[in-house]
Amino acid sequence: MKLEDKYWGKEYYKIMLVSLAPDKCNILKGADEEKRLAEILQDDYSISRYEKMIRLVVKEKVAQEDQDFCFHLFSLDFLKEAFENGQDKVTGSYLRSIQGKMQKVFVSIYPRKMTRQRKLEEFMIYVTSQG
């Protein structure tokens, strides 16, 4: 399978697939250091790999003033509630470091797989520096 860098006319900085069961976080396109981080994170009974990765990346890469917003936007509880209540997309924007420079990025998060009972199983995250 070949991933395209452009969807809907936008060039994406990061594309991520998150599976809740089994607990997987696959960065399909993005910074090599974040891809390695996603691969080495270990299972933990108290927190998912995705949540660990979000905590680390937000603390390291996101502007201080946007960190609380990002923790909320990317939280599993928030995303589950939104998608299980019928939302088809969650969006936001924030400042983050890309190749050493702070840039405004735009994120769109979509449910990819739901159970018959409308429980979230997988979702996709798309991050672009183009609005």
Describe this structure in words.
With 131 residues, this protein is of the alpha+beta class. Helices cover 29% and strands 38% of the residues. It is built from four helices and six strands. It has helices spanning 32-40, 49-61, 67-73, 76-84, and strands at residues 6-7, 10-19, 24-29, 90-98, 101-114, 120-128. Strands 1, 2, 3, 4, 5 and 6 form a six-stranded antiparallel beta sheet that branches. The two termini are 27 Å apart. Residues 1-9 have low confidence and may be disordered.
Tell me what portion of residues adopts beta-strand conformation: 35-45%
Please write the CATH class name: Alpha Beta
Q: Assign the CATH topology.
A: Beta-Lactamase
Task: Say how many strands there are.
Answer: 6
The CATH homologous superfamily is called PAS domain
Regions with pLDDT < 50 over 5+ consecutive residues? Answer: 1-9
The biggest sheet, with number of strands, parallel, antiparallel or mixed sense and barrel status, is: 6 strands, antiparallel
Any guess at the CATH architecture? Answer: 2-Layer Sandwich
Mean pLDDT: 87
Taking all Cα atoms into account, the compactness measure Rg is 14 Å
N-end to C-end Cα span: 27 Å
